[in-house]
Amino acid sequence: MPPDPRPTLTTPDDDPHLWLEEIDSPRALAWVAAQNAATLARLADARFEADRAAVKAILDRPDKLPFVSRRHGHLYNVWQDAEHPRGLWRRTTEASFRSDAPDWDILLDLDALAAAEGEDWVFKGVKAQPAGGDRALLSLSRGGGDATVLREYSLSRRAILDDGFHLPEAKSDAAWLDADTLLLSSAWGEGMATSSGYARTVRHWARGTDPATAPVVFACPAEHMLVGASVDREAGGRVTYYDLRSFYERRLHLGDGAGPRQALDLPVDAEADWQRGWLAVRLRSPWRLGGTTHPADALLGIRLDDFLAGGRDFATLFTPAPRRALQSMHWCDGRLVLAVLDALRPVYQVLTPGAGMGEGAWASAELPGLPEVGTAMLWPLDGAREESDGTLLLLVQDPITPPALRLTDTALAAPSLLKQAPSVFDAGGLVATRHEAISVDGERIPYVQTGPAKAPDGDAPVHLTGYGGFRVSSMPYYQGVQGKLWLERGGTTVLANIRGGGEFGTAWHEAGRRERKHLSHDDFAAVAADLVRRGVTRPGRIAAEGGSNGGLLIANMLVRYPERFGALFCTIPLIDMRRYSKLLAGASWIAEYGDPDRPEDWEFLQHVSAYHRAEPGRRYPPILLATTRRDDRVHPGHARKMAAKLQALGYPALFHEPAAGGHGYGKDNDEVARFAALGSAFLRRAIGWEAEGEAAGPARPGG
Questions:
Q1: Rounded to an integer, what distance in angstroms lies between the CA atom of residue 260 and that of residue 255?
Q2: In whole angstroms, what is the distance from residue 194 CA to residue 198 CA?
Q3: Which among 176, 187, 115 is positioned nearest to 149, based on CA atoms?
Q4: 38: closest CA among 653, 670, 661, 620?
């Protein structure tokens, strides 16, 4: 059973470490510098440097998979390696890509651009003009944050245009309405940001005009999450405006460049997408139409014109089951591609509207040969939906089998191998198997264990990770980095499918959301206990890691289940649940966690606010908290303050904060490798599994 709830917090706003939220203040930066120096002095030895070099070599490999997207007959790719750490934006022909040594045409060298302009540029994406236009809109981030600078680029001139569209740094998006007009969704400008820091308006921005005076054609209240717009070329340039009220609520409107004209009469929590005159609607909650109630997670289809005219004679395209859930849907060449998890096994179905028996029926086909324990991804090769000819890319992998990139189509022709990723660690003698733990309320919690095929000896060094939030499904991908740092050395890795994720649909997510968030944490602790029960390991040999929402998870393992772990690596985390909604993008997550300013929500939030639950006199396992200074999504103050509080309480918590990286682990392969190697060095030492250096025991107050 979980520990008894801590006493109600009577003074939650008494925060002596609030000054650490001042990201770039001299006092805060001096504290960070001292912390970084202390952490590196303890961990950065010869073994760490060897690990960093090994991971960087994996990330820089010239034979790694180059992921591509097709546009106007060319295949585009962004590539990072040792020679080009920031990356190259490049393209080639399809015939050349199929060869062993494609002939790449370099469009933009990010390293050269950063050096010439004295900026810490990170490539964040590109929006090309429609119909084969010459222009593209680049998104460039300083240090890897979500906020970007928008700049117009000419493909024919291979240059950023000084007199083209240019928007200063902000959280922005844009859609080409035509060659000389953008629909701009940006937080830049007075009154243009929501309380979450995203775009509150859509502006009609004509070439050569000031974006500050561009007319607003769509807007939402400041308390909503964001708005945006997209242009449907197949429908003559019809515009879809969307208003995301929260992560799980939206309103869609159809219109033109001057603004919305018709709202779609759909449940506010439903998702909708359409192509070639057909509409698909994915439900989050039950929807009663006439005498029929369609269940949550069902997928419905209808002709778009019929729906807009008031018709509601939907065809049922997918019906959920207790452990069978729709993960996503997308259109490709007039067919609807469904990604499904059936008892965690990946399934892909392709539905063809109007091709079944009877008016409005849909024909269905399923892609064969997908792994039982592993993952598959199927997506269109073409970057623009209006250009798609039905070609699909298929990526299949499992924890010990590197990914293979294959080519198929919406008719599900036998996939042909396009590119094969190399093996980057020795997987000899390793197996990946599924297991289930029983959580505090009797729920079965699946997990994937990867490690030696031989019988466990009860002392395995285990790396355990999970996420459990925002309906994100945790899948068993190829473990390149952990394979090199953990599995190849005889360790075991475990991926927990805890509640709050989307593995089994809305009910699984709801079971770990808001007042039930603690259950996702209970699930993770139950997996740790099950590894001990099965004789795989003992608590002191379990090293747990999680990032972002998974960082909230790890922080709660520290304060709620410290006896079940030997070490914790808490990365880019949320931790202070009293102030999270006031920091950066935090207000956008109220739908997931609750609103701490509402007393009834704080009543349950306080029990997962590890920053407030940490207390002196308890035996906490060693912990390394790590964030990045340029994370403009989850505020670095969370990790800073938790480290400072633990140290003030007498616990020797370690802290690490590189200067760049955004909401991730680095802006280039060297930074990512350094982050991974540091975390691995800490975890291995803390659980007593380190060939060099002194093994660290459990942390105790005062030393």
A1: 4
A2: 5
A3: 187
A4: 653
- CA proximity to 676, closest of 447, 424, 460: 424
Write out pLDDT tens, residues 655-701.
999 999 999 999 999 999 999 999 999 999 999 997 433 333 333 33
Q: Which of 65, 85, 48, 76 is nearest to 480 (CA)?
A: 65
C-alpha distance from residue 624 to each of 198, 264, 576, 659 (Å): 31, 48, 17, 17
In the structure encoding, which two tokens stand for residue 87, read together?
Answer: 């990356």
Buried b (16+ CB within 10 A) or exposed e, 292-317: eebebbbbbbbbbebbeeeeeebbeb
Check if 521 is active-site. Answer: no
What percent of the chain lies above the pLDDT cut of 70? 95
pLDDT tens string 84-114: 999 999 999 999 999 999 999 999 999 999 9
Strands 416-420 and 287-289 come out as: unpaired
Domain locations in the chain? 28-56+424-686, 278-423
In 3D, which of 679, 604, 684, 614 has the Cα closest to residue 644? 614
- State the architecture of 28-56+424-686 in CATH terms: 3-Layer(aba) Sandwich (3.40)
Using alpha carbons, select from 167, 125, 122, 114 the residue that is nearest to residue 630: 122
Give the C-alpha distances (Å, rounded to integers) separating 545 from 6, 173, 461, 671: 24, 32, 13, 18
Locate 424 and state its tokens.
């980057």
CA distance 469 to 149: 30
What backbone torsions phi and psi does residue 394 show, to the nearest 5 degrees? -120, 125
CATH topology of domain 278-423: Methylamine Dehydrogenase; Chain H (2.130.10)
From 185, 581, 663, 680, the catalytic residue: 663
| Residues 320 and 262: beta-carbon distance below 8 Å | no
Euclidean distance between CA atoms 661 and 142, whole angstroms: 9
9 pLDDT more than 90: no
Contacts for 28 with CB less than 8 Å, ≥ 6 apart: 19, 20, 21, 22, 640
Q: Taking a C-beta distance cutoff of 8 angstroms, is the pair 449, 433 a contact?
A: yes
Q: Is the dihedral of CA 520, 644, 693, 628 positive or negative?
A: positive
Tens digit of pLDDT for each residue in 158-199?
999 999 999 999 999 999 999 999 999 999 999 999 999 999
566: closest CA among 535, 595, 532, 597?
532
Residue appearing with tokens 């599900």: 412
Is 96 a residue of the active site?
Answer: no
**Axis-axis angle for helices 637-648, 26-43 (nearest 10):** 70
CA distance 513 to 520: 8
| Residue of 675, 641, 673 whose CA lies nearest to 656 | 675
Q: Find all residues with CB under 8 Å of 292, minimum gap 6, and list them.
A: none
Q: Parallel, antiparallel, or unpaired: how do β-strands 278-282 and 271-275 relate?
A: antiparallel
**Alpha-carbon distances, residue 609 vs 263, 336, 463, 575, 693 (angstroms):** 39, 42, 24, 6, 34
Catalytic residue among 548, 581, 588, 680: 548
Residues 6 or more apart whose CB falls under 8 angstroms from that of 533 comprise: none
